[in-house]
Amino acid sequence: MGSTHFLFGMSAGLGVAAWQGWSPWQTGLSVVLASAVAGGRFSPDLDQSWIWRKVDKVTPDESLGHGGPMRHRGLTHWWGLPAVLVGVLPLLPEESRWLMMSLLAGWCSHLVGDFVFGKRAGRGRGPGIPLAPWWGHVGVGLDAGGTAEAATRSFVLPAVLCWQFLTLVGIGDPVNDLVLDLFR
Ligand SMILES: [Zn+2]
Prior knowledge:
Elements: H1 2-20, H2 24-36, H3 50-58, H4 80-88, H5 97-116, E1 129-130, E2 137-138, H6 147-168, H7 173-183
Antiparallel strand pairs: 1-2
The structure holds zinc ion.
């Protein structure tokens, strides 16, 4: 699932940059930042890092119920955290907002990825990501590591990234025409 998250984060970084009309260097940095928080230790999956697991072991957060906020796909995977940051965005200095937007794009891409590819697990955890802070999971429940994820990683996301890149550098029109022709 790691490289799928990474690719999806790149796509999210490119997407937010195109939407906002950022300069090429901002776009490049946005892709780097978004992919950095889309997968791995700086992503919502930081709840799988050894230090998090160690702290979780000695923290009685389970007493809060539903397996505790520190469980995997718990609080770090809750949509409410990025939602709060979206609310804070207007309070940030205008010239630094794009950095936060890039990080939010990457972080949220991870949540979307887990919403689609995330099976039901032990301790009563449902598929996907939590609707409530760390419980009430909802999601499509596809197998992370299954065929659909492999196809998304190997074909869908690379194709989307190519299309985004071509569109961004202004030579995407022939590709867009081709795709539109397919659906006509
Ligand atoms: Zn995750």
